[in-house]
Write a structure and sequence with these properties.
Blueprint lengths: L7 E2 L7 E3 L7 E4 L9 E6 L5 E8 L2 E9 L3 E6 L8 E5 L5 E6 L2 E6 L3 E6 L7 E6 L6 E5 L8 E5 L7 E2 L12 E5 L6 E6 L5 E7 L4 E4 L9 E6 L6 E6 L5 E7 L3 E4 L8 E7 L5 E9 L2 E8 L3 E4 H7 L8 E8 L6 E6 L6 E7 L8 E4 L4 E3 L7 E4 L1 E3 L9 E7 L6 E4 L3 E4 L6 E5 L5 E8 L11 E7 L3 E4 L3 E5 L27 H13 L33 H13 L2
Parallel strand pairs: 32-42
Antiparallel strand pairs: 1-36, 2-41, 3-30, 4-5, 5-6, 6-7, 8-9, 9-10, 10-11, 12-13, 13-14, 14-15, 16-17, 17-18, 18-19, 20-21, 21-22, 22-23, 24-25, 25-26, 26-27, 28-29, 29-30, 31-34, 33-39, 35-36, 35-40, 37-38, 38-39, 40-41, 40-42
């Protein structure tokens, strides 16, 4: 559904953000069950917030991987051949690939190839795939590496020849290593590694896993674990021991280091599981008692809150369920997938919650550039606004161009495709692409009665579920062909600037000189002579006919024509 941007009042050339664009209450989707099943749990969500991975039980199966869409509901993806169960916990950007755990084996599912058992590393007896890249071609996870004892971080691609070990920090052993997440572009893997000191450290692997970097711990902490990385690769989230008891969710950036996100009131420990595209929203869970979890949300607007209480407070209908773990969040932060439990039965159910107030509006990368339009030209002039969603890309972006109305008021209102008429000046033109990044203006005409023209001013509006931003505003200037000394650019045929440009240019001078050798007649040339626009009478002399020669008087008259107006 498209949000109709509210009336926006702008100072000319100003870029404003209408944060918290008008919206209804959050929409809750209970993702349901497989036939004859009793439970389901969430995994990952695509950047647009419309496709979900997870697992659900079924008769004879502890768990089967599923993919959920609004149009298709819960789709049973089954299990790899000869394995008794599977759970999909991560999903690619398009929703056409997933990864997870199949009977303690890493697996990948693709829409084109189905289930693929990736096995385990070496003589390991169990493994888990924890992340998949946006294109679905890189899977990361961990195995209990019995070659060394303990755990080992692994990475798989179609060309890797099987699972590959990721390196430990300098001085550390591969024991205690886990890969827990991967960036959508596949360039950064996050997790934890053994090191020279006690405990383990949250790390990020760079350059497809060949370089490993220690992210540290919260003050006073012993160990830390990194769970996810933002789409723009600038923010990592996870959890760490700290100077108090238990663990705390953290948010790490290169500039700010590791920051404690705290815990909702009454909690004991907190863990960050996933982050949105630009790092301004984090989900996870916290504990209120031993083995009692509650889903958690942090963002730059509200801080750290209990997700169930927050959603109930802003009008969401969870039908009595309590969300226990938030497993993923989409790119702009407007959609969260979580697992909830119904207190009366204790059974789990997977949920998708959309339309959540989010902190991150679009970002204007390139403002439109002002243009000139030829009178009545069917060739359009194009204004373009370039924007990106939080974390990059075009996810969930919608466009709406605005025009200043009334003219010179600074007030911008939406414009639609089709004919447009300014009731003040009588200016008319055709509009196309009003809801796209490219606005096309053609057939611009002044009023037949010759009213003064007010050049229209336009701004490109870009909306996502979080906010609306408007580009700097620019003018489309209607050329006034009122001066015989002002001509179209030489060789300009086929361009959008074929008419006079109201500037003294090299093209004007070339045509001025060439008219003497071309003997071009000039019907209607008015005060500049009837036979040749470049040939005039003597300046200040008695009335006379043009002399047919290029003189200083001709040049002076030619230059003065620009200041004489119409």
């Amino acid at each position: 559904m498209r949000l109709s941007p509210p009336l926006l009042v702008l100072a000319a050339g100003l870029c404003l953000s209408a944060a918290g664009a008008a919206r209804g209450a959050p929409i809750v989707y209970n993702l349901g069950l497989l036939p004859a099943g009793t439970e389901s749990a969430s995994g990952g969500v695509t950047p647009d917030g419309w496709t979900v991975s997870g697992w659900a039980n079924a008769p004879g199966f502890f768990a089967k991987a599923f993919r959920w869409t609004l149009s298709g509901g819960m789709q049973d993806l089954g299990v790899p051949a000869s394995l008794p169960w599977a759970a999909a916990n991560s999903i690619s950007s398009t929703g056409q690939a997933m990864a997870g755990n199949a009977s303690n084996r890493l697996f990948r599912w693709t829409q084109s190839g189905g289930m693929q058992n990736l096995g385990v590393y070496g003589i390991s007896t169990l493994g888990l795939a924890t992340g998949i890249s946006g294109d679905g071609n890189t899977v990361v996870g961990w195995c209990n590496n019995n070659n060394f004892g303990g755990m080992a971080a692994v990475r798989w691609t179609p060309t890797s020849g099987g699972l590959q070990l990721l390196p430990a920090l300098p001085g550390g052993l591969t024991v205690g290593n886990n890969a827990l997440g991967i960036s959508p572009d596949g360039s950064i893997i996050v997790g934890n590694s053994g090191w020279t000191g006690s405990g383990v450290r949250a790390v990020r692997w760079l350059s497809t896993g060949t370089i490993v970097q220690d992210l540290g711990v919260l003050p006073g902490g012993l160990s830390s674990w990194a769970s996810d990385v933002s789409t723009d690769n600038g923010t990592i989230v996870g959890y760490s021991h700290w100077s108090g008891s238990g663990t705390r969710a953290f948010r790490w950036t290169p500039a700010g280091g590791m920051v404690n996100l705290g815990i909702p009131f009454g909690g004991l420990e907190s863990l960050g599981t996933a982050v949105n595209g630009n790092g301004q929203a984090v989900v996870g869970f916290y504990t209120v008692a031993s083995n009692v979890k509650r889903a958690m949300l942090w963002n730059t607007t509200i801080g750290t809150v209990d997700l169930t209480n927050y959603l109930n407070g802003i009008g969401a209908n969870l039908s009595g369920y309590t969300l226990t773990t938030a497993t993923d969040i989409n790119q702009d932060g407007s959609a969260i997938v979580a697992t909830g439990v119904f207190p009366a039965t204790g059974l789990q159910r997977a949920f998708l919650i959309r339309n959540i107030p989010c902190p991150s509006g679009p970002r204007i990368i390139d403002d439109p550039i002002g243009r000139t339009a030829c009178p009545a030209s069917p060739i359009p002039v194009t204004l373009t606004v370039v924007a990106e969603a939080p974390g990059g890309g075009q996810t969930n972006l919608e466009y709406q161009w605005h025009i200043e109305f009334p003219p010179d008021s600074g007030q911008m209102v939406p414009i639609s495709d089709g004919p447009y008429a300014d009731p003040v000046s009588g200016l008319t033109f055709e509009v196309a692409g009003a809801s796209t990044p490219n606005l096309n203006i053609s057939n611009m005409r002044p009023a037949p009665g010759g009213l003064p023209v007010r050049d229209p001013r336009f701004g490109g509006g870009v909306t996502n579920p979080c906010a609306t931003v408007i580009s700097n505003t620019v003018i489309v200037h209607l050329i006034r062909p009122c001066n015989l000394a002002d001509i179209a650019p030489v060789g300009g045929t086929g361009t959008s600037d074929q008419c006079a440009d109201e500037q003294l240019t090299v093209d004007d001078v070339i045509v001025f000189v060439n008219t003497f050798s071309d003997s071009v007649g000039c019907p209607g040339a008015g005060t500049l002579g009837a036979c040749n626009v470049a040939d005039v009478c003597g300046i200040g002399g008695p009335p006379a006919e043009p002399d047919g020669e290029l003189t200083v008087d001709d040049v002076i008259a030619f230059v003065n024509a620009f200041s004489d107006g119409c």
